Amino acid sequence: MRRWAELMLAHRRLVMVFWLVVAIAGGAVSGQVTERMTTDYSLPGEPGSETAEQITRTFGNGGYTAPYLVTLSLPEGRTVAGDQAGVAAVFAHVQAEVPNVRVLDQATTGDPAFVTEDGRTAYAMVFFQYETSATAKIPTDEIHRALDAAKPPGTTIGVTGESVLGTGSESEGPGILIEVLIGSVGALAVLAFVFASMLAFLPLIIAAASILATFALLLPLSELGTFSALVQFLIALIGLGVAIDYSLLVVTRWREERHRGADNHEAVVIATQTAGHAVVFSGVTVAIGLLALLVLPVPFMRSLGVGGALIPLASVAATLTLTPAILGSVGPRWDWPRIRREDSASRTWSRWASLMVRRRWIAAGVSIVALLALVGAFTGIRVGMSSSDSLAESGPAYEALATLERGGVTTGNLTPIEVLASTGRARSVAAELGRVPGIERALVPHGPASNRAGKTVVVLIPDEETVNSKSVDTVRDVIDRAERTPGVLGVTGTGTAQIDFLNAVYGNFPLMLALIALLTYVLLVRAFRSLLLPLKAVLFNLLSMGATFGLIVLFWQQGIGSDLVFGVSETGAVTFWVPLTVFAFLYGLSMDYEVFILARMREEYDASGSTTTAIVQGIGRTGRLVTSAALILFLAFAALASSPGTDLKVMATGLGFGILLDATIVRSMLLPSLVSLMGTWNWYLPESVAKILRVKPSRPATAPPRPEPTRVG
After folding, report:
1. Span 214-224, average pLDDT
2. The pLDDT of residue 485
3. Is 20 a residue whose pLDDT tops 90?
4. For the whole model, what pTM was predicted?
5. Which alpha helices (H) appear in 135-263, and where do they start and end?
6. How would CATH label the architecture of 11-37+172-328+508-693?
7. Where do the TM regions start and end (predicted)?
């Protein structure tokens, strides 16, 4: 690292020009990269996805999508029964005018349940084409125009469904650029407090370079495979937080060395040699957590792993090249005005660390009990989809759904089960599967839109939305009965997508978890030259993960706070892909702070030979840094939570909960108390292991297990 820093300083102008070119290139291709991203959440090889693909190929719609529910309400004094032909004509017009849709209503199925109990509102199910492009729009506007053009005078139309309710409102949200600006302004405020000088702008420059470099790296990869549209949000906002954190660590250490009297050149070298070393291990740890997603047989999760891993790698590259180059060129001039000095450890954080050492048993006990209590809440998690109650509480889509519910229409219509059957046996299939408990009715539509190539799509309406691990049992029962029913070619729908995801992803989760834990442990053993510290870090990072999921369950699934903060009632379940995504990102991000703190503790122990001194100095030197870094990441996640989609809000708040929980209870209380309790055993690495890892062995200053003094000094 020292030689690397010398190289960057010797060629600092070339380095800055290189990153300027990278930033320009990244900005130029970012739009192209975004256009190539998809919203494809299919699961190749899984039964539900295979059936959905057959339906899409044969009928040009449905399969992967939950349908729209379109409503036509007649004025007071008129009923649907008195104008069936006119109502049917409106829905037929939608079928004729909107490309690639399949309309089911009373006219096409003969089912009177397509009319509300008061007789004034008729509705239809509109299955539309599944578009995977991130820039493609669902046909909401086209359906509205078709209804407007055909509706009789005095009638009221409505369009609802999972796809339009999921945005939470008619608004498309602030957009990525605005969200990044919101996060940047918040980060700048924190950085201004930390540095109290013009240096506050330097981490933002590093973040901008990192984000644009990540888009540039993603361009050639997008030629080799598809990437989920979620990746663009993660690059922009998590990239902002991670790059700022890494740069903040290096710049703070540079400033510390400068205020101790080192000249600018030597200060840059020492900062890169020490803080830069921690940045490398932090970045690799984050990347490991994300690349572990590659073991899952789900394309969009794999794309999150690859795209997400580019974020810390680009951030490490920018931090270890551009940061030394800028500090070597203009660092001293930007460190103005010098209101805050870094030549001594924070007295506040040092006193806090001393308190944790003196009260280590109490601190460890309170921390563990608090975390275990949250883990207890996690055991009640329901994995599935957000219920319709939590998707929107206002807007035209909400009003249309409310009209149907007041009219006695079940919300199971939002998540129907599509059964692909041979046309000759369609009615017997409907009769058999319609008897499954939890199914309200079975529809066998006539006409070419639902009957082609000897195949018919039978639609089953469940009693309630199949959106979580409890209500989806009805779908499982349908699948079991369908396997024994002649004429059934396959079963699909939103419920089967959840079942397939749970089988494909969470069945492989133990393998992913073991892979992450093993690789992280080996990496940290080498970083800290200790067998025990990395083990503690991995185990309590997993405990922190469980506690974070407990907070998600309380806040979102049970709605304790979600309505107050976001105006969203309890979701009833956590969207099936969210827990795994939160885990992959949060595992590495929260480990960052462990690396920052323990790397400094290791340095202080090597200098003093005292565990207590290492704890007090390590926390004293990194406490404000870690807190500020966590706050910056939290603000980035808060910006992401401003997106209109409920699922993105759940993911963003989950990441924010995890970062704050980790930076407070775990790193500020549990870490120092446990390091104190483990005493000299923290610093032991036998020669046999050290030789394999190509590092120096480590022997405690006093023979283990001699306890450390309980009081500082």
Report:
1. 92
2. 96
3. yes
4. 0.81
5. 140-150, 162-165, 175-195, 202-222, 230-233, 239-259
6. Up-down Bundle (1.20)
7. 176-194, 201-221, 227-251, 278-298, 310-331, 361-381, 505-525, 537-556, 576-599, 625-645, 665-685
